[in-house]
Amino acid sequence: MSTLLTLHDPARAAVYYRAGTWRPETMYALASRHAHQRSQAYALRDARRRITWSALVDWADAVATSLHDSGLRPGDRMSVWLPNRLENVVVQLACSRNGYVCNPSLHQNYTTAEIVALLSRIECRALFAQPGWGADAASTDIFGDASRLGHVKAVYALPPLEAGDVSLPDGASAMPMPGARGSGEQPAPSDNPDQIVYLAFTSGTTGPPKGVMHSDNTLLANGRAMVSDWSQNENTVLLSLSPMSHHIGTVALEQVLVSGCELVMFDPTAGMAALDWIVSTGATYVMGVPTHAIDLLQEIDRRGMTALGSVKVFYMAGAPIPTEVARRLLALGAMPQNVYGMTEDGSHQYTLPTDPIEVITGTCGKACAGYEVRLWNPEHPDIEAEPGAVGEIGSRGALLMLGYFNNQSATENSFNRAGWFLSGDLGRFDAQDNLEIVGRKKDLIIRGGHNIHPAHIEEYAHRHPAVRKAAAFGVPDERLGEKVCLAIIAPAEAPSGDAMLQHLASEGLSKFDMPEYFIVVPEFPLTASGKILKRELTQWAREGRLQLQPVRYRAPQS
Fold first, then answer.
1. Of 186, 197, 238, 475, which residue is 20 to 30 A from 305 by alpha carbon distance?
2. How far apart are CA 302 and CA 295, in angstroms?
């Protein structure tokens, strides 16, 4: 029995079961079914290895055995700090098998001190990590630091794949391998799909990260809907460009477990370019963020290619998709899947392959089966927004998390009085009820009482042929409160500030929303999942680290 306190509601669960969005099967059970029915079919691939469903389940059993022998019990948390390699999935399935809670959201750019703090927050019982992985791995020892935490019962070291046989760090054990025998009787696989099996920290773009809790069912409900809507099957080759430490990687795994297809992971440290990996693996469905698509399109242009390998669908989430990026993917034969969601509720909102081009390029479509979305007055979140108005995106349903770990206040404050989860994002519905993302509520720029949504400025900026990436953010102003700065990355010849303003005007940006500062930068500060950290840009501007160029739009004289 797990002792975790969650939002699980038996009455609501019964509704989901009757609707079929929740089912009596765990992630491990789905993997086992594929191993029984198609044992020699490929399930998983990383930069150096490829394994079948049968081998995957055998390996998950061995890891579950080792964790049980180390004294873990259902509900115990264990963490993964690894690059994209097979073991990420093996450990998640082992947790589903035994009822442990997998915490996979430890990113490469974290320091050892940050990892130790997160392990302490969740009272982690076991850690799987790779020597040399992390922001300061060369001068710190995560294995020694983790072993000294009183609540940690097991630490496993996984040498880099290219390292061969190497000695293990002091206090660390080797990764359990298939066929390993336990010291005693092992528990039968859990048959409870409502157990908490996943705890992921939010990206922290607007504050300290919170620990999001999901069950097998809240995760798989998302995978079931996406597989059905986009007709994925065992012949799909699903390639994730995102790290498995990000929730996009988890959404990829959900679809793989539901459909029985192969999951291909991209490891940027393995020495192969993303485009070459996509082509060589025969990927048909690619998942990532718009930044990945922008970079791939630039490389395709450089090589003079006319197709993106065998890719038929390109999932993009985490940020609005520039319209020009979507149109160029369509021209290459890859249908963009415009997706909106959060760690808290997965990829719940997305376009469909039957949607017209204007819906795919301009909206995130409709909510998937088992989920509902409404818009709420940003200033009065218990009142629905007026039809056609911008509102805060609220949602509820079978995909929704089961609370924030050990954080009653954050959990309570994330819902309005009617029980809708408030995302902090702003959107509007079009005439067909497709959702258009306007931006983060906290990214909203208020200049002299006028609300300015950065997403519109960024969309128009991305249409300039020289602009690779763009970000609009607020900078403090004594008189108006805030002013707008537009920052761009332009690898070739960058437009001047005045030229950019004229471009924005020609694309339809209101003169009242025009930037008053402009800057060309070599790169943006990013989260591990590729989201631009706008609060960092604002802070850099406040500290004088960015040399902002004042600009002023002047309408053409008639």
1. 238
2. 11
Task: Judge whether 372 and 396 are in contact, CB under 8 Å.
Answer: yes
- Whole-number Å distance between alpha carbons of 234 and 261: 4
d(CA 391, CA 375): 5
Smallest CA-to-CA distance from 106 within 46, 71, 146 is with 146
The Cα 458–Cα 509 span in angstroms is 10
- Give, in order, the Cα–Cα distances in Å from 112 to each of 106, 107, 134: 10, 11, 7
Q: What is the DSSP letter of 70?
A: T
Q: What is the 3-state secondary structure (H, E, C) of 396-429?
A: EECCCCCCECCCHHHHHHCECCCCCEEEEEEEEE
Q: Which long-range contacts (CB under 8 A, 24 or more apart) does 499-505 make?
A: 500/461, 500/464, 500/551, 501/551, 501/552, 501/553, 503/460, 503/461, 503/463, 503/464, 504/457, 504/460, 504/461, 504/553, 505/553, 505/555
User: Which of the 8 DSSP states describes residue 504?
Assistant: H
pTM surpassing 0.85?
yes
CA distance 453 to 439: 6
In whole angstroms, give the CA distance from residue 488 to residue 494: 9
Name residue 44's amino acid: L
What single letter denotes the amino acid at residue 121? Answer: R
Task: Confirm if 77 and 101 have CB atoms less than 8 A apart.
Answer: yes
Burial annotation 145-176 (CB, 10 A radius, 16+ → b, else e): bbbebeebbbbbbbbebeeeeeebbeebeebb
The C-alpha atoms of residue 86 and residue 62 are separated, in whole angstroms, by 14
Question: Do the Cβ atoms of 534 and 541 come closer than 8 Å?
Answer: no
Q: Which residues pair with 78 in a beta bridge?
A: 102, 126
CA 265 to chain CA centroid, nearest Å: 14
- What is residue 388's three-state secondary structure? coil
Instruction: Extract the tokens encoding 509.
Output: 């940006």
- Tens-place pLDDT, residues 394-417: 999 999 999 999 999 999 999 999
Q: Where are the beta strands (DSSP E) in 325-370?
A: 335-342, 346-350, 366-367
Q: What is the rounded CA–CA span in Å between residue 151 and residue 453?
A: 45
**Chain centre distance of CA 307:** 26
Intervals of the chain under pLDDT 50: none
For the chain, the C-alpha Rg in angstroms (whole number) is 24
As a whole number of angstroms, the distance between CA 220 and CA 475 comes to 41
Question: Does residue 373 contact residue 397 with C-beta atoms inside 8 Å?
Answer: no
Sign of torsion over alpha carbons 132, 134, 136, 141: negative
pLDDT value for 207: 57
